[in-house]
Amino acid sequence: MTKRIFIFAFGAMLAAGFFFGQTKPYKVLAIKSAKIIPVVGDEIDNGTILIRDGKIEAIGKEIDVPADAQVFEAKGLCAYPGMIDSFCFLGLQEISGVQATVDNRETGRINPQVRAIEALRYDSIHIPISRSNGITAALVAPTGGLVAGQSTLIKLDGWTNREMVIKRSAAMQIEFPAIRGGRGGFGGMGRGQAAPSDPAKLIAELKDLFHKARSYQKRKEFAAKNPALPIPGFDETSEFLFPILKGDLPVMISVHSEKDIRSAIQLVKEESLKAIFFGVEQGWKVADDLKKADIPVVLGSLYDLPPVWEDGYDSLYRNAGILNKAGVKIAFSSASASLAKDLPYHAAKAAAFGLDEKEALKAVTIYPAEIFGVDKLMGSLEKGKSANIILADGDILETRTNIKKVYIDGKDCDLSNRYTELLEKFKKRT
Amino acid sequence: MKKFLKHILVCGASFVLAALPILSAGGSLVIKNGTILTVTKGVIAKGDILVVDGIIKRIGENIAVPPGAKVIDASGKFVIPGIIDSHTHIALAGTNEGPEAITPEADVGEVVNADDTAILTALSGGVTMVHTMHGSANPIGGPNVVLKLKWGKPSEELIVPEALRTLKFALGENVKQSNRTISFGGPPPRYPQTRMGVNAIIRREMFKAKTYMEEWDRYNKLKASKTPPKSLLPPRKDLRMEVLSDLLRGKMVARCHDYQATEALEFMNLAKEFGFKIACFEHAWEAYKIADELVAAKIGISVFADSWAYKMEAAEGIAYMAGYCAKKGVLVSINSDSGERIRRLFNDASKTMKYGGLDENEALSLITINPAIQLGVDKIVGSLEVGKQADIAIFNKHPLSAYTRCDMTIIDGDVYFDRAQYLKDRDEADKKAQAPKTNGDRP
Amino acid sequence: MRVCQRLCIIMGIFGLVVFFWSASADVGPTYAIRNAKIVPVSGPVIEKGIVIIRDGLIESLGPMGKVAVPDDAEIIEAEGLVAYPGLVSAHTNLFLDEPKTTEPAPSQPDFMMGVAQPQPVEFAELLAFRLLKPKKAPLDSYLKIGFTTVLIAPSKGIFQGQSVIVNLNGEKPEPMVLKNPAALHINLTTGRGTYPSSLMGTIAYIRQSFMDADYYTNARALYAKNPKSMKRPEFNPFLEALGPYLKDNKPVVFQCNNMEDIKRALKIIDEFKLNALLSHANEAWRDAAVLKKTPIPLLVTLDFTPPAGSKYVSQGEELKKKAEAEIYPANAANLAKEGIKFALTTLGLPDASTALKNIQAAIKAGLPKDETLRALTIQPAIYLGVASQLGSLEPGKIANVILTKGEIFDEKTVVDKVFVDGLLVKF
Q1: Do strands B406-411 and B414-418 pair parallel, antiparallel, or not at all (unpaired)?
Q2: Residue C118: is the preceding peptide bond cis (ω within 30°)?
Q3: Quick one: which of B396, B418, B394 has its CA closest to B81?
Q4: CA A278, CA A250: separation in Å to the nearest integer?
Q5: How far apart (Å, rounded) are the C-alpha atoms in residues A350 and A320?
Q6: Mind listing the pLDDT tens digit of every residue in chain A (430 residues)?
Q7: Which of A139, A303, B35, B179 is most buried, judging by how many CB atoms fall within 10 Å of its CB?
Q8: What are the residues whose beta carbons fall under 8 Å from the beta carbon of B14, sequence distance 6 or more?
Q9: Which residues on neighbouring strands pair with residue C418, listed in sequence order?
Q10: For chain C, which residues make up each domain, given as ranges?
Q11: Rounded to whole angstroms, how far apart are CA atoms A397 and A384?
């Protein structure tokens, strides 16, 4: 009798283990009856997605679903690719006003050696919140100074920071000054004056650093080949800058004014850099130049005032549409940690001011994937790509839409977060 | 003869009365064929609004256009009450009197700045009225003022006289100067530097105000008595104490900046101890923890949708808060407290549909009728109803859609923001800038 | 006999007074300025005339031939020159050696009041006269562009102090003084780091100060009448100084740095029924409606720097440039068009050459030349209560006369000679 009870209890515990865990392990998952918006390719009404080993094995209207497949009935829901935040501070900032919790800005001006991944707090309160709104990958970047450091591309799921890595070093962050000193230029709090733009000095400084890096590299090579030559002393800056000159690492250049953008385009050409531009608030003035130079643009947060009065009250809003129409590849970013969940709403805001709605969706999915060179893995719902899928009860760029399911590499992710924890806690107070 | 004169008088009086509307301020216009979201009286799928001299005279279908009225074609567009931002600091020449902790004598109504271009920013986001306030440097800041954003009009015409008189209080980190670096060896920091001290200093000032009121009562009694003493000198009139006395007499209501739940509960205790009314807690990021107490005390909250985690006391602010408290029966408004966020209040309001489960009308109320009630101006604005002032915003899509855009903002029947006109002006300016110069270009 | 005696005594006393009075000052020279075009301001232009100066005053003036040249007169040949009254700048901060504005932090117990340090120091009792330190070079620069009289007020604080009106007749302060004190000066500014540090705090502070001055004066009067009835009110030099301006209608000048300040000042002036003038006011044209409804003496500065918060400087570079070059220089012209009276001042200008340049700019912007002249002569004299002594060329008035080669304020015009208090200035 006791043996039976023991077996029953053991079995119950096992079963409990299966049912209490949020993420249910499966071999094959079939998401059925969803309206599929793959972003690349046509929409599929009432379609099915088959996931195996973290990849999309099949996707379509009529698909053979294996017998042992776990099925999720997604009637009434829309399936989208998980969104990608092209510039944020997730994991590097908890409480922005409390310095002890902020790690995105190193002191000094030239810091190519610092890596965002090495400070990434994977247990940040902000990551689950962003994930629960359908964001499945993000570029986490350091900021500040002239060379801020190496950004990292992560998926928003993992038990350690290294588990989250998609690309350990996604880009070298270089920054030109903002157009205005403080918040201002358009009324509201703060009345910053437009800082005079002198890109020539910065360009000269960067070229000098690049030159030093190249010659350092050469001396290292020669010393390696010829033991008679002295080994150059370790030059940290040159060591970590060199990959961008080889073309192994893209640069993400934070650049804002029309004048600076032009100078940056010139620099990229002269130094043969693989470049992505970030911010680009006056990009609409030089859209053709950006297109000609084939430089993709990650837009900064649209939650800001125009940098100069003359650009117009809607300049940040209409920027994306103008760039997109000129053929420039664009992506949106939250440029935040605590408001990273708002990524889709920046895209919608741009759509309100002229950006085509389908392009807006692409700018938070496939375009960032292409920009960071991971479009074979993510950015759209296509066979062979990672199963980064979100199921929503409407258009994911709409503020009222609820995300019901988030799959990252096929894993059914926990959607609880700081908001839901505190809400549930105080709901208990009757 | 008498009857004839009486006749003349009546005729004359009625002539004058009939002429009065022409003397009052405000424009006349007809908005046609829009989807009208009245907020308090339902939705009209396709309707018109007639405004005469700044007042909404009719809402319905197929309204005839009176001669001289401007016609606004709202086909395919959404018409809502002008948005009310119940917590900002725009249009003021200064917001904090920081060197002293208790400064209710400093009245923001004295420093309205109608030249502030933040007004234009707000208009572009459909905002027609703001409650512009002291900052949060002081436990007791001072009186605030409610303005209509009538750009181009003299400052005195912006002030809304019907609004409740509000007194700004603040608790927590800003007041106790937590986020400032203390210089060692310099002058001692300003008291109070803890939340205990904040409450104590407010209590102290309330006691002082009560003493002040007693002194004046005593003097007034003596003066009114049959034999007032010869050397009767009135007490010194103190502007600071006058304002606090008004609060204690019920002539003003408190609007208190707070974050932590304990702060709010203890401030409510202070209000009970001294008998003053709290209209609203500002920001109140932990209000969801004390929703029941707020409902019971009939205290509203004026909050962000989701701007949080910038200070320790904002670390437990959840995006569900506005919606959750609204569902519990707290009077909730969403504010901007920012010259940038002010133009996205409709986006912020829409977030409560997702975080909180509010329906469209409940969400829209957060930026229209609710702040109006909190400010005591719900009889004149906050919804589209016949008889209310014509503060109206027109959006090209549903205002709670993330894809929407404000196309026109109207105050008292006059158009203060018109995107179509703005685009036309910009096009012309661009053409002029690109036109070849007529001098010095010949080879 | 009795009548005779009385008369003798009176004559004797009178003689002694005259003796001591005139014995204290040298008798000034006599000049006859001949063949000049004379612009008296208070009367019609005299194409070719003569002005007689004797012992500091204008003795007489008139067309050539109508006025006799006294035997003791030094002849000043003024053929081709124009004679004007010396110019008056009714508000400046010139020639002052001003004190520091902060005091050391108070001792420990005070900070519990919830008050930051340092505490403000207000200067209501400060007399500009005590700070006068005129230097030759700047003095001469203003004389050379035609200014002979200026009001000098301290420049620091909210209650800045009490001004003095001086003639620019040398470097020694006492002989310069025309009127001391002239007025109490209040500036709608902030204390910067001390209370009040915001404009709304300043307004409350000004109002409270006047209320306290009222209370204080009443308390002192009550005590004086019946000292046995109450404890003596504590002496307060600040309130003591404010008293006459509140109770005895002495003039108060409010410096209004933008259009809103004008309305704010008018509110305070009305509340306390002050005898007030408004100064700076370089946006006054924007308040034309208000100023027409409540006329008040205006001392309008020639400093065209747009106020920091003006909408003309926060809506793009083009408008800002236009504001500096056209809109603000047209302030006076617009006021004149509205029929609003004003005097022009050099308040806030760095030097005399800027003053002249800005006068010319105001004229270019549309202020008629004769109105400009009035605004720099008789109008300030009226506002400052010295119109019986200055502001025009009339017999009996102080001989502040300038002779110009060319019409005044014209591009190529230079000031040829300057007389201050009847003395020819030597440059």
Answers
A1: antiparallel
A2: yes
A3: B394
A4: 13
A5: 6
A6: 666 766 655 555 555 444 444 456 788 999 999 999 999 999 999 999 999 999 999 999 989 999 999 999 999 999 999 999 999 999 999 999 999 999 999 999 999 999 999 999 999 999 999 999 999 999 999 999 999 999 999 999 999 999 999 999 999 999 999 887 444 333 333 344 555 668 899 999 999 999 999 999 999 999 999 999 989 999 999 999 999 999 999 999 999 999 999 999 999 999 999 999 999 999 999 999 999 999 999 999 999 999 999 999 999 999 999 999 999 999 999 999 999 999 999 999 999 999 999 999 999 999 999 999 999 999 999 999 999 999 999 999 999 999 999 999 999 999 999 999 999 999 999 7
A7: A139
A8: none
A9: C402
A10: 27-85+392-427, 87-390
A11: 25
What ranges make up the beta strands (E) of B201-328? 253-258, 278-283, 300-303
Instruction: Find which of B112, B233, B426 to mutate to test the C interface (most C CBs within 10 Å of its CB).
Output: B233
At which residue do the structure tokens 């270019």 appear? C364
Residues 6+ apart with CB under 8 A from C135: C95, C171
Nearest residue to B146 (alpha-carbon basis) of B168, B134, B124, B129: B129
Number of A to C CB contacts under 8 A, please give it: 9
CA dihedral A244, A247, A249, A253 (to 10 degrees): 60
Contact A191 C315 (CB under 8 A): no
Question: CB of C211 within 8 Å of any CB in chain B?
Answer: yes
CB C214 within 8 A of CB C139: no
pTM: 0.91
Cα(C240)–Cα(C125) distance, integer angstroms:
8
Which of B89, B102, B111 to mutate to probe the C interface, most C CBs <10 Å?
A: B111
Q: Where are the domains of chain A?
A: 13-81+379-430, 83-375
Query: In the numeric block, which tokens belong to residue A333?
Result: 């970013």
For C24, which DSSP code? T
CATH superfamily name and code, A13-81+379-430? Urease, subunit C, domain 1 (2.30.40.10)
CA distance A232 to A227: 12
Q: Whose CA is closest to C315, among A294, A308, B326?
A: A308
Q: Which domains does chain B have, with CATH numbers?
A: 25-82+382-422 (2.30.40.10), 83-199+237-381 (3.20.20.140)
* Residue A219 identity (one-letter amino acid): R
The region that residue C104 occupies, defined by phi over 0 for left and psi between -120 and 50 for alpha, beta otherwise, is beta
For residue C321, the distance in angstroms to the closest alpha carbon of chain A comes to: 14
Give me the residues paired with residue A80 across strands.
A390
Tokens representing A349? Answer: 């805001």
CA dist list (Å): A151 to A103, B352, C249: 13, 33, 71
- Could you say which of B292, B309, B319 has the minimum Cβ distance to residue A94? B309
- Rounded to 10 deg, the angle between the B239-248 and B195-224 helix axes is 90
Beta partners for B129?
A: B84, B148
Say what the pLDDT of residue A1 is. 63
Rounded (10°) CA dihedral A290, A291, A297, A300: 60
DSSP state of B20: H
pLDDT, residue A183, reads: 41
For residues C259 and C282, give the distance between their C-alpha atoms in angstroms, rounded to a whole number: 8
Q: Spell out the residues 6+ positions from residue A267 whose beta carbon is closer than 8 angstroms to its own.
A: A203, A206, A207, A273
Place of tokens 């006011």: C281
- Cis peptide leading into B192, omega within 30 of 0? yes
- Report domain C27-85+392-427's class: mainly beta
CATH 1.25.40.10 fits A83-375, yes or no: no
Task: State which CATH number among 3.20.20.140, 3.40.50.720, 3.40.50.1440, 2.60.40.10 fits the domain covering C87-390.
Answer: 3.20.20.140
pLDDT of residue A198: 82
ipTM: 0.90
Which of B93, B98, B108 lies nearest to residue C197, judging by beta carbons? B98
